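Recap from last week: sequence in, structure out.
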Amino acid sequence: MNDFAHQMQVQKVRIQYGEQGIMSIAEVSVLDWKGSNLALNKLATQSSVDSDFEALKAVNGDFDDKTQTYEEEGEYHLFDVSVS
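Predicted structure tokens:
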């Protein structure tokens, strides 16, 4: 891997749906160059919360959980992978 890839630092990852709808995510993984999941158990937010499908369920390591927004336009999930 080149030196540039080793120096990159991702702080936040945003996933946004471009149309009106419901956004549902089972699990998010953000891997570093060693294969470690930087998103696991990190801070997560989303544009709205449908029922008890809060954003933290997308980064808890459990693929049986899911996160879900209400039906809206511009819904998003935001993951802060810089928090330790």
